[in-house]
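Slide 14.
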Amino acid sequence: MTTDFTLHARLKADCIWLGDLPLCRVLLAGDARFAWFILVPKRGDIRETYQLSQSEQDILSRESAAFSRAIMERFNGDKLNIGALGNMVPQLHIHHIIRHEGDAAWPHAVWGHGEAQSYSAQAIEDMRAAISALGLKGYVASA
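Slide 15: predicted structure.
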């Protein structure tokens, strides 16, 4: 395992970088219909959580839990879907999707459901500010 980190090209193309936690890059999925975030451990050549060191697994767990709690409170979600599938993008990444009863895909999965809607530049800045305001320990917003 290496700490050399390069974000997978598909994540780079499909997501918006919001900032970084101590271990994870925080991305916003490019579909404005959902509050859909992705945490990506900033480690090279990692496909599965067990490939992280034990201490990194612990950090990932704490970052995911703190992030989950904060976004559910901020976005008043009814349900939080968390998953690390990696079938299309092998790089370890963990989806955190806030669901609201009656959202565009409810109660089904968000993947492949309808047409994605792009974020406006202002909506991206608003989302960046909202995540920054969560007060997550060690979080640094992207430039």
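Speaker note: The CA atoms of residues 34 and 98 lie 7 Å apart.
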